[in-house]
Write a structure and sequence with these properties.
The chain has 154 residues and is α/β, with parallel strands linked by helices. The chain has two domains: 55 residues, Double Stranded RNA Binding Domain (2-Layer Sandwich); 82 residues, Winged helix-like DNA-binding domain superfamily/Winged helix DNA-binding domain (Arc Repressor Mutant, subunit A, Orthogonal Bundle), CATH 1.10.10. Helices cover 35% and strands 16% of the residues. The protein has a three-stranded antiparallel sheet, covered by helices on one side. The protein has a two-stranded parallel ribbon with strand order 1-5. It is globular, with a radius of gyration of 15 Å. The relative contact order is 0.16.
């Protein structure tokens, strides 16, 4: 039997992956691994492999069907996140300029905080305009580790 969810142990802790209609809909951070009761679907196996390659520094781009659920504004913010190159960062203000002005920085930050597909939609690459690490639903330690990992393999 094939599951629509799977988990992966990673350098930033266990990750939960979920799919729906043959697209990845969620990648979330867990505090401890769940109990597996079935085999991951073929898509989730590919996602786990690509994430493992990412953590080894062998992958900088993901090639997975994504279907994050959100408002049109959130969708646009998440699309903008996917344009930030591996190993680089952008400020919330820079990301907001893609929406027409710096006044959208708080709304962009809010959208980033609701990103349902962490890492693959790289909200960890957005920082404060002064270079400080700010806001990350997965926790600041994880954000720091992800940015360090990308800097090392860039």
């Amino acid at each position: 039997m094939s599951c629509q969810s799977a988990w992966l142990e990673s350098p930033v802790g266990p990750l939960l992956l979920e799919e729906e209609d043959e697209a990845l809909v969620r990648l979330a951070f867990l505090e401890q691994p769940p109990v597996d009761s079935c085999s991951p679907s073929p898509l989730l196996e590919v996602a786990k492999r690509q994430l493992s390659e990412y953590f080894r520094g062998a992958r900088q781009h993901f090639d997975l069907p994504l279907k994050p659920s959100g408002t049109p504004f959130q969708q646009k913010a998440w699309q903008a996140l996917q344009q930030i190159p591996y190993g680089e960062t952008r400020s919330y203000q820079q990301q907001a300029l893609a929406f027409g002005g710096a006044q959208y920085a708080r709304a962009v930050g809010s959208a980033n905080g609701r990103n349902p597909i962490a890492i693959i939609i790289p909200c960890h690459r957005v920082i404060g305009k002064n270079g400080a690490l700010t806001g990350f639903a997965g926790g600041m330690d994880r954000k720091h580790l992800l940015l360090q990992l990308e800097a090392r393999f860039r």
